[in-house]
Write a structure and sequence with these properties.
Blueprint (H helix, E strand, L loop, with lengths): L13 E6 L6 H14 L3 E6 L10 E6 L4 H10 L6 E5 L4 H4 L5 E3 L25
Antiparallel strand pairs: 1-3, 1-4, 2-3, 4-5
The chain binds zinc ion.
């Protein structure tokens, strides 16, 4: 087995993008968000009914801090109402954040990675600065 040398990657937070169909599953996405916002101190950055950036379909963005991962992600694993969810970190490489560093709950959605910078991208949690 070949092991890569581990290198430290600075991560400033996470996004959970909850994908939905505006005509069929928006209500489910709203329920998932309402529950997660009630349970945890996460930030809802809004529902995007139109494709935006690397995301080819509608999604709602939940922003949270690194130390919330262990609460938020296990909760979403069990309470996503069948919706597909991308969880990605916020490092200094937005392309890696959305590909090599990402995890998926449900089925992966093919992202438009060419729209992203090899640098910081995406909203950081409130109170966190790069
Ligand atoms: Zn994001």
């Amino acid at each position: 087995m070949i092991e890569k040398t581990t290198q430290s990657v600075a991560n400033l937070g996470y996004h959970a993008h909850i994908y939905y169909d505006p005509t069929k599953t928006r209500a489910a996405a709203e329920r998932v968000c309402a529950a997660i916002e009630q349970k945890f101190r996460v930030e809802n950055d809004g529902f995007r009914d139109e494709p935006r950036g690397p995301h080819p379909i509608s999604n709602v963005l939940i922003v949270f801090k690194p130390d919330q991962f262990e609460q938020v992600v296990p909760y979403l694993m069990l309470n996503r109402e069948g919706l597909d969810v991308l969880v990605h970190p916020l490092t200094t490489d937005a392309v890696e954040d959305h590909s090599g560093y990402a995890i998926w709950l449900g089925n992966p959605v093919e992202l438009k990675l060419h729209t992203l910078p090899h640098g910081r991208g995406g909203r950081l949690p409130s109170g966190v600065t790069a």
